[in-house]
Amino acid sequence: MTEIESRAAGYVWQLLRFANASPRSKSCFLHTLQNAGYVLAITESSRILIQIDTADKLEITDSKGLVIPPGNADAPSLVVLSNQSIEQTLFPGITDPSEPAGMTVGERWVVLDGLAFASPRFAKKYWSEVAFSRHCAKDLPIRVTENGCLLGIELLYGWEEEEEAQLRLIQIARVFGSSDMLPETAQDIESLAWSDFTRGLLGARPTLDNWSFANHLKSLAAPAAASVLVLGSYRVDSAIEEAATALRGLGYTPILLRDAPDLPFQTNTEKFLAGVMCSAFVVVVDTEPSGHLSELTHLLDLRLRPVLVLRHKMDPSSCFLEDRIKTDPLFRVAAMPAFSPQSIAGLTAWARTEMEQRVKDLNGINHWRSRASS
Fold first, then answer.
1. Is 148 buried (19+), middle (13-18) or exposed (0-12) by CB count in 10 A?
2. ∠ CA 214-215-216 to the nearest 5 degrees?
3. Tens of pLDDT along 261-316?
4. Helices (runs of H) and strands (runs of E) counted in the chain
5. I need a surface site. Which of 119, 123, 324, 348 has the fewest CB within 10 A?
6. Angle formed by the axes of helices 3-20 and 186-201, nearest 10°
7. How far is Cα 42 from Cα 39, in angstroms, rounded to an integer?
8. Cα gap 291→232, rounded to integer Å
């Protein structure tokens, strides 16, 4: 590997390092880096092309015509070619790489993200079949001069070959107009890769309607005050649904963990705690043994919310935790033949009073709360 090729490889490995330290993404830029199968490096005179593609978008053959198998994001297949036309590599439909280009890049920092190009012949014959956001008046869409640099992300190119429409998606292409634009030291290469990485992310971040953690917590305040986590056995729906219906009758919104989605990285305990944090209090339907016994242990240890333990008879489903439940002032146990709004009204009133007092206590201790609300 030549010194220039080694620098190009170092640049790519830095990009991959940053990408693999980021959240998984379906956007083209991050998805390509996180699922890279091929890295194509071409040196032509003093110019350099670095192209990164996933295995399903690029298939490279060796000098014998055999397909080079793709690698993975940790070690993609690196293919280095010398003295090959960069224009014809990116845009195989052109016949003369020296012809005038539809767009000339002569600046050091140019990012093209999500653009589509087509030859005039393609645009004329196949426009109705493929809608392009931009098309060129020349067969050669882009040329990078010796003073220019280009970072291309998800560029679609259409041309005609043997009277058939051809389409190609260029996932990531980095073109250096001259080799001295690719730094020599490892530190400078890392800085360049980071700069390109952040530029590529500009078009890759998901749109979440100006989502922020602070606004998200604020949005939970009102719903949480009227929400109640309901725990119990799902094997027999009647008891847990009976309690949920009773809570609805009093104006509360019951939360059942089985109805909530599972985040891929979330354990069952984390899901349970998320339900607790989004509730004013917790109702445990203790009519038969189930996973709620484990959840009761967490509730007793953490003491985050008032807990109502509802039974159809006084005997618990398990006696092991009964002493802790009945001696904890944050717990109330009640047995009744049926759960109804009327039968649980006194219990929910106690739970609400407990939470209101908790709010007063916390506001008095955490002095910054008054400033935040003023």
1. buried
2. 90
3. 888 888 999 999 999 999 999 999 999 888 888 999 999 999 999 999 999 999 99
4. 12, 16
5. 324
6. 50
7. 10
8. 7
Tens-digit pLDDT profile for residues 77-88: 888 888 788 998
Q: What is the DSSP code (8-state) at residue 336?
A: -
Exposed e or buried b per residue across 274-292, where buried means at least 16 C-beta atoms within 10 angstroms of its C-beta: bbbebbbbbbbbbbeebeb
Lookup: tokens for 63: 């000098």
Rounded to the nearest 10 degrees, what angle do helices 268-277 and 292-302 cross at?
60
Judging by beta carbons within 10 Å of its beta carbon (0-12, 13-18, 19+), is residue 333 exposed, middle or buried?
Answer: middle
Distance CA 209, CA 343 (A): 43
List C-alpha distances in Å: 260 to 19, 59, 247: 30, 42, 18
Q: Please say whether the dihedral angle defined by the alpha carbons of residues 211, 216, 222 and 224, taken in this order, is positive or negative.
A: positive
Cα separation of 250 and 266, whole Å?
32
Look at the pTM and tell me if it is higher than 0.70.
no
The type of residue at 212 is S
Residues 141, 105 contacting (CB under 8 angstroms): no
Higher pLDDT, 11 or 58: 11
Cα-flanking dihedrals φ and ψ of residue 298, to 5°?
Answer: -65, -40
> Sign of the CA dihedral 354, 360, 362, 364?
negative
CA 359 to chain centre: 35
